[in-house]
Amino acid sequence: MIAEMDEMLKLWALDMHGGLGASGSGGGSMLGQLMDCKGELIRGSPGGSRMLLPWSADIEVIVNKHLEWPLAQVVREHYLNRDSLDHQKWAHCGCGRTQFYTRLGRAHVAIAGMLLERVA
Fold first, then answer.
1. Contacts by 105-110, CB closer than 8 A, 24 or more apart
2. Deepest in the core among 2, 17, 72, 87, taking most CB within 10 A?
């Protein structure tokens, strides 16, 4: 996985999808947000990082329209589905742990390449 791409996708999830699981029980409290994020602190303002918003919109289009289905599926599961355990995410994508993270790594490379094409 590409560390910078991982951070961008975390911010994309926060910007475009609220960064909360299906329960959405954060309610604005720090403790509620930590519970929703399963203890994973994502730096940025409480409402999301508006500085990355242009990139978030590009990432949204890439994930929804240009990324091949298996890669888009693992991106959505990994970054947007905070309610499921890891083994449930792998099962939903129809693969094991190794293949899930291989696909996620390929997705990072594909998204980074498409972002670079948009900049050029």
1. 105/1, 105/2, 106/71, 107/67, 107/71, 107/72, 107/74, 107/75, 108/1, 108/2, 108/5, 108/6, 108/9, 109/2, 110/67, 110/68, 110/71
2. 72
pLDDT digits (tens, 9 = 90+) for 46-95: 444 444 567 888 999 999 999 999 999 999 999 999 889 999 999 999 99
H helix and E strand count, the chain: 6, 0
Cα 22 to Cα 28, 37, 82, 111, 116: the distances in Å are 15, 11, 8, 25, 32
> Could you tell me if 79 and 13 are in contact, meaning their C-beta atoms sit under 8 angstroms apart?
yes
Please state the pTM of the whole predicted model.
0.71
Question: Is the per-residue pLDDT at 40 higher than 70?
Answer: no
| Domain count across the chain | 1
Q: Which two tokens stand for residue 80?
A: 């947007």
Cα–Cα distance measured from residue 66 to residue 62, given in angstroms and rounded to the nearest whole number: 5
